[in-house]
Amino acid sequence: MASDQAAGVLTRIDHWCTRIEQAIVGLLGLVALAFGLVQVIGRYVMPHHAISYAEEVIVYLLVWAVMITSSQLVRRNGHVRSDLVLRLLSPATQRILEIFNCVVAIFFLVGLCWYGWQVVDTSLALDERSSSVLQFPMWAYYAALPTAGALMSVRYLARLIALLCFYDGSLLSAGHIPQHEATLLADEGDIQTVRT
Question: Which residue ranges make up each domain of the chain?
C-alpha cells in the first residue's frame, strides 16, 4: 500500500515536471520562431531596422530547448542505444544491465554538471560576452549544459529508483517497438497492433 502511494506521488511529480519542461521548450521554440520571422521580414521590408543579433538569439534559444528536451528523451528511453544484444537476454539480466546503465549515466551526468558549472563560473568571472551588438552574457548560454545534466540526472535517478523499488518489467525497452516504427509497420501490415 505504501509503495503504491509512493509510486503515485512520484508519477504525479514526473507528470508535472514533464509538463513544465514541455511548456518551457515550447515557449523557447516560439520565441525563436518569432525572432526568425521578425528578422526575415525586417531584412526585406525594413533592412535598416532589422535585428542584427537575431540569429545569435535563435541559436541560444534552440540550444536551451534541445538541452531541456534531452531530459524528455531519458524519460521516454529515447536516447540512441544499441539493444540488439539486450533483446536476446533474460528479463532479469536486462534489468541488471539497465540498472548499471542508469548508474553509469548518473555518474557521467554529475561530471557534466560539475564541469559545465566550471565553464559557467569561468565565464562569469571573466564577464564573457558575445561579440555582437547584443553583448549577451555567455554564462547564460553555457548554463544550458549543467542544467541539462541536472535534469537528465534526475530522470535517470527516477528510472533507477523505479527499477530497484517498483520494477514490473514494463520499464525495459527490449522488445519495445517505438511508436514511429510501430506506425510505419502497421501501415505496411507487418504488425497487427500498434503499441502506445
Answer: 2-188
Counting Cβ atoms within 10 Å, is residue 90 exposed (0-12), middle (13-18) or buried (19+)?
exposed
Q: Which three cell numbers stand for residue 142?
A: 553555457
Q: Which of 51, 47, 159, 167 is nearest to 101 (CA)?
A: 159
49-81 pLDDT tens trace: 778 899 999 999 999 999 999 999 998 888 877
The predicted model scores a pTM of 0.79
Tell me which long-range contacts 1-6 makes (C-beta under 8 A, separation of at least 24): 3/165, 3/166, 6/165
Q: How far is Cα 19 from Cα 15, in angstroms, rounded to an integer?
A: 6
Phi-psi group of 189: left, alpha or beta (phi > 0 → left; psi -120 to 50 → alpha; rest → beta): left
DSSP state of 48: G
Mean pLDDT of 172-176: 54
